[in-house]
Every structure is written in structure tokens, then in C-alpha cells.
């Protein structure tokens, strides 16, 4: 439990990656909690997806309807933002959205959200900036990508190079800070009023905030990609 | 005690984010009321602006946490 006296220790403890279990291979591979929860999320996502897309029909029935609804929504969003070349990016952005929406809200089932681990959000933001750079090189060529650094004016070059690092940094810090912040606030509220009120507030802090952050992360990545390929 | 005050001052960045997001939202509501057919575009711009404005508040939180951790 977090109290005012042991706040620094507890904060430090929350920032360390917890070891969930150790695989008894070689010298023992330690599996952090965030990885274990990520595997669980993968199970939740992959098995139903495979079950639903097993026997696809032209006229969808049952579960296929819901799957098409989700995929259609993601495709429509990417199409609306990126434009013509949406087909290449929709799978990546859709996976990101599905993973993040589960990862941010999994705390309502009592698991530690993996996005509370700075390593996870760093990996995610590096992934998105890599996708942005790759998209830029793919659609503008290496030369076009290098040239865009000196646009619109040559002396803005250092700013454009800095942007390459600031974008992933702010993506990763935004996600991490939001999830950690809401986690700390919820812990403090449990401490002060352990009855009824946390249930109401957890709807905001655990579900609403997590989904908003998912939308922001995916939307910013989409926007960067759009900017990179035009 | 001093550390707690320092961390509290760092969290004052939230004021700017609050004012910024409030202004952005009020303008967005106004423009949706005036032009309901442009609601989709306005929503996107609002989301982006809010995310960028809110980043300052998050940096304040991160710095407050760092102050608590490294100056105890």
C-alpha cells in the first residue's frame, strides 16, 4: 500500500520491472511482469482472431460480423487520415490500437498494465518512429527522405533532426506518464476512501483514460505517417 | 518537506494544460455547433491539440516523480 511516508520507496518499486516468473532454461530466463501480461493479451487477441477468420464467408454470420466491424472501423480510420496508401499501414496501426486498448485497461481485471513499464512504451514508440521512417523511405526514396530534413528552409535542419528524437520521446513519455499517473492516483484514493468512490473513479482513470491514450498514440502515429509519405 | 513542496511546484504545469485543453474544447464545441457536418475533422484536430497540450502536464508529473525519487 502506498502511504505518504513510504511514497519514494513505493514509487521506486513501481518503476522497477517486476519479475513474474523465471523460465528454468540455461541460467534461468527472468520474465518481467509486463512481458507475461503481454503474452496474456496476445492470447486474448490471437485465439479469437484465428477462430473467427477460420472459415470466412462472403456473407458474414455470427462472430465474423463483429470482426468485420472492428477491421472495417480501423480501415476506415486509417483511410480517412492517411489517404490513398492506407492499405499498407492499416494492419500495423490496427494491431497497435487493439494491443494498447487491452494493455491500458487490463488493470480492471487486476493485472498490472504493461504500459506502466517504461521499457514497453519505449519499445512501442521506437516501433512507431521506425514505421514512420520506413514509410517515408518507401514512398519518397532515400534521397527524398534525406532531403525533407532541409525543408522548408535549409537552416531549419537541426530542428528537423531533433524532431526525429523528440517525437518518440514524447510518445513514450505521454503514454507512460498517463498510465503511471492514473495508477498512483487510484492507489492514493484507495488509501483515503476505500469504499464506493474508487469504483466510480476507476471507470474514468482505468477505462476512459486508457482508451483516450490509446487513441492519442495511434492517432499521432497515423498523423506522422501521413506527414512522412506526402 | 522541501522535496514535497518542490514536487508540488512541478505539478503546477497542470494549470497550463488545463487552461489549454479547456480553451481548445470550448472552441471545438462552438465550431461543431456552427458546422455540424465538419464534426469529424474538428474532432481530429481537437484530439491532436489536447494530446500536445496535455504533454506539458505529463512532463510536470514525470519531473515531480524524479524529484521525489532522486532528492529524498
Report on the structure:
The complex is a heterodimer of chains A (230) and B (72). Chain A is mostly helical. Chain A has one domain. Helix content of chain A is 73%, strand content 4%. In chain A, strands 1-2 form a two-stranded antiparallel sheet. With 72 residues, chain B is mostly helical. Chain B has one domain: Up-down Bundle (F1FO ATP Synthase), CATH 1.20.20.10. Chain B has three helices and no strands. The longest helix of chain B has 32 residues. The model of chain B has no long low-confidence stretch (mean pLDDT 87). The interface between A and B is medium-sized, with 20 and 16 residues.
Reconstruct the topology from this structure:
The complex is a heterodimer of chains A (230) and B (72).
Chain A: H1 7-15, E1 19-23, E2 29-32, H2 33-52, H3 63-82, H4 86-105, H5 118-147, H6 157-192, H7 197-229
Antiparallel strand pairs in A: 1-2
Chain B: H1 2-10, H2 13-34, H3 39-70
Major sheet size, sense and barrel closure of chain A: 2 strands, antiparallel
Span between N and C termini of chain A? 51 Å
Outline the low-pLDDT stretches of chain B: none
Strand content of chain B: under 5%
Relative helix content of chain B:
over 70%
Q: How much is the average pLDDT of chain A?
A: 84
Distance between the termini of chain B: 10 Å
Low-confidence stretches of chain A: none
Assign the structural class of chain A, choosing from mainly alpha, mainly beta, alpha/beta, alpha+beta, or little secondary structure.
mainly alpha
Summed over residues and divided by their number, the pLDDT of chain B gives a mean of 87
Radius of gyration of chain B: 17 Å
**Adjacency order of strands in the biggest sheet of chain A:** 1-2
Hey, which two chains have the biggest interface? A-B, 20 and 16 residues
The strand count of chain B comes to 0
Q: In the CATH hierarchy, what is the class of chain B?
A: Mainly Alpha
β-sheet strand percentage of chain A: under 5%
Helix content of chain A: over 70%
**Major sheet summary line of chain B:** none
Q: How many H/I helical runs of chain A?
A: 7
